[in-house]
Specification:
The chain has 259 residues and is α/β, with parallel strands linked by helices. It has one domain: Rossmann fold (3-Layer(aba) Sandwich), CATH 3.40.50. It contains nine helices and eleven strands. Helix 4 crosses helix 5. The longest helix is centred in the first third of the chain and has 14 residues. The mean pLDDT is 94. The chain binds S-adenosylmethionine (SAM). S-adenosylmethionine binds next to loops.
């Protein structure tokens, strides 16, 4: 296999097609509720805490938190489409949430602005430079108040490697078919995603690459970014039915504190 990958793929791939291809994970309210249950179990959230949902996409975790009474949420994401989608949803639900469109490596947000910072839904490992995720974690550290906690939810690279599936496809409703071809290279996966519509024909044929973390490498990048009391929680599965949910099958959650 030979995958030609635009290093900036992540800047354009999180759009309306992503909300279709990943709907089984990111548009399933039951899964979002379970994920937020885990956040609430692992972090000591107070209703007046300031929470940053970094790489928050279309806002599902902040919306769930808001509906549970955690009203000081900020969603930051690079995707213009997802941020605008989230703003419309928030306004329809009268959710008073802040939105920022920015790069998580350099947000421009004042230092020590948040009590908790979440990076949910496998939102790291996209940028080819190995240091990019450390830059995201260092920026997160800067934004946290002393005593504040980070929670990072990523795919469990060891589980993905052990059950590596080079080809997968699934259907969404009556119209959409998503086909994925994958290649495993040490700590990275190259993937080609083809999305077909029965009505319209080909709607996407794109390649991307994701860096995988195991518990050691995830702990290490958190510790190298300054966090203390780092712990990793594994064996977390959110989907009810067996299936290939891309990188959302096997999850690993790291927590760490800015002391
Ligand atoms: C798989 S989605 C998950 C979104 C959300 N956290 C969720 O669980 O629904 C990954 C998100 O990370 C965002 N992202 C990735 N790298 C980013 C960066 N450097 N700065 C800002 N957003 C980024 C993407 O735009 C995308 O919305």
């Amino acid at each position: 296999m030979s995958f030609k990958i635009d290093p900036d793929w992540w800047k354009t791939m999180f759009d309306e097609v992503y909300l279709l291809t990943d709907a089984r994970s990111v548009c399933d309210e039951d899964i979002t509720r379970k994920e937020v249950d885990v956040v609430c179990e692992l972090l000591q959230l107070n209703f007046d805490h300031d929470i940053m949902d970094l790489c928050g996409g279309h806002g599902r975790h902040s919306f769930e938190l808001y509906s549970r009474g955690y009203k000081n949420c900020t969603i930051l994401d690079y995707s213009k489409y997802l941020i605008e989608h989230a703003m419309v949803q928030a306004s329809e639900n009268n959710y008073n949430i802040k939105f920022i469109r920015s790069d998580a490596r350099n947000t421009g947000i004042p230092t020590e602005s948040f009590d908790h910072l979440l990076i949910m839904g496998n939102s790291m490992g996209y940028i080819p430079e190995k240091k990019a995720d450390i830059h995201i974690l260092e920026e997160a550290y800067r934004m946290l108040r002393p005593g504040g906690w980070i929670l990072v939810d990523v795919t469990n690279g060891t589980a993905i490697k052990n059950a590596f599936n080079p080809n997968a496809w699934h259907e969404i409703g009556e119209d959409i078919i998503v086909c994925r071809q994958r290649e495993l290279l040490n700590d990275r996966i190259n993937a080609r995603e083809i999305v077909l519509s029965r009505k319209k024909g080909l709607i996407r044929d794109r390649n991307y690459r994701i860096r995988l973390y195991d518990s050691e490498s995830l702990s290490m990048i958190l510790e190298n970014s300054g966090y203390k009391k780092v712990s990793i929680h594994k064996g977390i599965e959110m989907h009810r039915a067996k299936g290939d949910y891309g990188f959302m099958n096997h999850r690993m959650i790291a927590t760490g504190q800015k002391v």
